[in-house]
UniProtKB/TrEMBL annotation:
GO BP terms in the entry: chemical synaptic transmission; G protein-coupled receptor signaling pathway, coupled to cyclic nucleotide second messenger; serotonin receptor signaling pathway
Upper lineage: Eukaryota, Metazoa, Echinodermata, Eleutherozoa, Echinozoa
Membrane topology, record value: Multi-pass membrane protein
Cellular component per GO, a single term: dendrite
Record's subcellular location: Cell membrane
Parts of the chain that traverse the membrane: 22-45, 57-77, 97-118, 139-159, 186-213, 250-271, 283-306
Protein name: G-protein coupled receptors family 1 profile domain-containing protein
């Protein structure tokens, strides 16, 4: 159906089938709930526990804030623009107000993934300089730059969208792929950035994990001998090797899930440029790639709890106090003892009790 000249009587080329709307509700609403509750718990745990406010934990907590914004803002607005088709969501000039937040928070999350990778690399390659170089102030400045960069991108995009006088309908509403130079450049640039950046980040984190494994292998014989004599406490340098290995595994999981989650989106961008796909096929590919991207934000809290004992016990405490459930006294003792000034990194693997 073609659009008429009167905005009040605009008809669109494609009417959303009820099946599409139902599938969106069935698959995305549970993921949004998991994203919101999981990352809210992570943020609450960091707020309540001073030991979760060290440099590495601060980066992960800020990433949780970004994931929370994805669940609260970006994904609902994006889905609204896909499910509800009217003169606003189908307008090229106005639809950006709904879709831009996905790209804003992707930029913010990607910047945090880079910070996490750099933090692990410095901790392993420059352990003696790590404490003096990676300070809380510098970490906060880097996080602020990540957020300002993403938000600035969104503001400029909205300004450009507001100045756009094009009154044509979006591709999602018409089923027509716009092959303009600007559209192709944006899609190819975005796809290339996601793919190349993801490959580089995954490669760096695999290298980091290999370094941690080599450190652990060098101390493994002493670890075995020491485990045979439990009356002798484990030296600090041995515990540090195990801590660095566990921290590297956590980082690889978080970075890997982020990159894997967004790789289908880059493939979808390439297909939009080089392949003529039916309108129904476009909807299926878009929803599938967007769903996988949201999964990366949903699984992060589970990775934190699975690989980090302090996060795990604090999450138990947060949920227990929220729903008035009595927590195990041993858990309370475990996460309440210890020095708040002790320098730790994410999943350092240290004992929670003294």
């Amino acid at each position: 159906m073609a659009s008429t000249s009167s905005p009040e009587s605009t008809e669109y080329a494609f009417n959303n089938p009820p099946l599409h709307q139902a599938l969106v509700m069935i698959f995305f609403i549970p993921v949004i709930i998991i994203i919101v509750f999981g990352n809210t718990t992570v943020i609450a745990a960091a707020y309540k526990e001073p030991r979760l406010r060290t440099q590495s934990y601060i980066i992960f907590t800020s990433l949780a804030v970004s994931d929370l914004c994805i669940g609260l803002i970006a994904t609902p607005l994006e889905l609204y623009s896909r499910v509800v088709q009217d003169e606003i969501t189908c307008s090229v000039a106005k639809s950006g107000y709904f879709t831009v937040w996905v790209y804003v928070l992707f930029v913010v999350s990607m910047a945090h993934i880079v910070l996490i990778t750099a933090d692990r690399l410095l901790a392993l390659k420059r352990p003696l300089r790590y404490v003096t170089f990676v300070t809380t102030q510098r970490v906060c400045i880097a996080i602020a730059v990540a957020w300002v960069g993403g938000i600035s991108y969104g503001i400029f995009s909205l300004i450009e969208s507001g100045n756009n006088k094009d009154d044509s309908l979006t591709q999602f509403c018409t089923g027509v792929s716009y092959k303009t130079v600007s559209a192709r450049s944006f899609l190819l640039g975005s796809a290339g950035s996601i793919m190349i950046g993801g490959v580089i980040l995954i490669s760096l984190n695999i290298w980091i994990l290999c370094i941690a494994v080599n450190h652990l292998r060098r101390i493994q014989p002493n670890l075995v001998n020491n485990d045979l004599k439990p009356q002798h406490p484990r030296p600090a340098w041995q515990a540090k090797g195990r801590q660095q290995f566990k921290a590297a595994k956590t980082t690889v999981l978080v970075v890997g899930m982020f990159c894997i989650g967004w790789f289908p989106t880059s493939i979808w961008f390439y297909l939009r440029v080089f392949v003529d796909i039916s309108h129904v096929g476009q909807i299926i590919l878009f929803e599938l790639s967007f769903f996988i991207a949201n999964l990366s934000s949903a699984v992060n809290p589970f990775i934190y709890c699975l690989k980090d004992g302090l996060f795990r016990h604090m999450n138990i405490y947060v949920w227990g106090t929220t729903f008035n459930v009595t927590t195990d006294p041993k858990d309370v003792i475990q996460f309440r003892t210890g020095s708040a000034r002790e320098p730790v990194c994410i999943d350092e693997g240290r004992r929670l009790t003294k």
